[in-house]
Amino acid sequence: MELTGYRYLLLGHLMAMLRVLRIATVVLNLKPFMLLFTESYIWHRTVRHTLLFLISVHWTNCIIYILPALGYYWTGKMPRQYTLFLNSTSGDLSTYSPGMRYNKALFITLSALVGVDPSMLKVSTVEEFVCYSLIVFYGAMFMVYTIIFLLKIYMTYYNSATRYHGLLSQMEAYMQHKQLPAQLKTRLREFYRYRYQEQYYKEDDTLECLSDQLRHEIILHTCYKLVNRLPLLEGLPASVVGAVMGCLKPEVYLPNDLVMRAGDNGDCMYFIANGTVAVYSLKGVEICHLEDGDHFGEVALLMADSKRVATVVSVEITQVYRLDAVNFRQIVKTNQLLYNRLQELAAQRMHETVVLDDEFRRQREKRVELDASGTTLLS
């Protein structure tokens, strides 16, 4: 083949290198392809980065041989001063199999990526030194990009946990500044640990940008287990149940926290999601314990004076959902069945409270009489 033919062939090979532009298309098409398997941002970015790494390694392997290839197509003869790393004495690349050449180039490429001593490349010419320097520089830049990528993945995966620990640090600094007692510090730490489960995110900001319908669906899903445990809501229309769930507000109480006090004005009722509370009468008599799925505080909302008839104290860490009086009255007005259930339950609880208080009063009077009789006998 004439020298001109070799050069035209070189031009054809160089034109084929324009296919490198397809990499952008491949990366763009990778996202819809990955959506078929997962929606995880971390997996999408990991697969994308791995693909770019494999393409970079392959192209670098090929670029290592670009100088002897250019010399061959430009002069029609195989240059002898390049690829000394192959331990070639003849300088003829054709004496080595493609697999052997690729493996040797792969070894050099991976060495360049991790910053191995470049003397192993056995550079003998200026242009070859420039070529390998560019490869080493690209490898260093790609490794920097990889480190940044890994840090970003780490921050994405542990973002909520990092925010939680940051919040704890702020709380510790606040408690130190206010010089709070050790017992109160312990209760605060316990509250934060239960409230956030070591994962902190700005829930209000997340929900604020959603439509009312989406917010309503999220609340229903969050309170789904609570709804199934509430006999009060059994058989009610879905619209009523949805209205109740949409108005609930979560609260957390630590052991021995006062939830409500007898004699205070009642402005809400509570549904227990998790935990246990103890109920006491006006005279301090323990009436019962309420657990998951129970509710309390509705009696005051049905009475004319809205006074609490019982004191409620949390026995353990308890998560409740609060239904404010305004929302309570709006919902009760629209459903007679719910109103009747609440009336019956309120009457039953009032009766139990009165009976226990009367029994407590009789026992106390009897105890006073016995004490008085004992005093008389002694005198």
Automatic annotation (TrEMBL):
GO CC aspect terms: HCN channel complex
Signal peptide segment: none
Domain Cyclic nucleotide-binding: 232-349
Source species, domain of life: Eukaryota
Transmembrane residue ranges: 51-74, 129-151
The UniProt record lists the keyword Membrane: yes
Keywords assigned: Membrane, Transmembrane, Transmembrane helix
One MF term in the entry's GO annotations: voltage-gated potassium channel activity
The protein, known as: Potassium/sodium hyperpolarization-activated cyclic nucleotide-gated channel 4
GO annotation terms (biological process): regulation of membrane depolarization; sodium ion transmembrane transport
Pfam families cross-referenced by the UniProt entry: cNMP_binding
InterPro entries: cNMP-bd_dom, cNMP-bd_dom_sf, K/Na_HCN_channel, RmlC-like_jellyroll
